[in-house]
Task: structure prediction
Amino acid sequence: MLNGGFPTGHVVLLLGPPGVGKTCLSLQFLQKGLDQGERAVYLSLEEDPEALQAAAGEFGWPLAPAIKDGRLKLTRLDPQDANNSLKRIRSELPRELQAFAPRRVVVDSVSLLAALTSDEGERRGILFTLTRACRAAGATTVLTAEADPLHPEVSRDGMSEYVADGVVVLGPTEDLPRHQAGLALRIVKMRRTSHVRTRQPYTIGPGGITVDAKAVNFGAF
Ligand SMILES: Nc1ncnc2c1ncn2[C@@H]1O[C@H](COP(=O)(O)OP(=O)(O)O)[C@@H](O)[C@H]1O
Ligand SMILES: [Mg+2]
Result:
């Protein structure tokens, strides 16, 4: 769909409601890099590292060896612990990312950054700081975000799509002719890249997400 994956150095937003596989696709993106011997960082605001490792293990991607090798850092940022998390994002993380120089970074999910402050300008600042640090480190970055329930192709925070070079919308669909509920994704934007614009069905299975590149889903999200 993308002629060879997410473009190097891009910040790509995976947007969708809960349960559509954003975390799964993030882990798949990470694992692809680990398989190639790359260094990677997973910043989790949602799930704790043990739960993530368990989820990845279910898909057949054991993370422990890469953590042990020092090639993978699973970092938990607790949205409840706003002071600490803000401090980390503003001062320590940019330095850590610069020093570690990961090829791939995941931030899951940026929607929870909203919990760190009620000031909208400050929230925008945090998101910019974080994505700037990922870009500066030379990484290709995946951000996940919750979609606005009323507008499935818009993020709930209304700003994540603007810091991203690419946006992939994921959501449940109904294949009306066959009366089957399923999942589909659409690449809404991918700067400097030619890409498919149709909505493609996908499944979540033992090896992660598989996109059916041939079938087109003509329904609505
Ligand atoms: N090992 C697995 N095999 C098949 N499907 C799975 C597996 N683990 C999770 N899923 C599916 O993935 C969904 C959750 O995906 P997840 O990436 O956590 O979603 P999100 O991050 O968008 O909330 C579950 O609802 C389930 O349908
Ligand atoms: Mg998730």
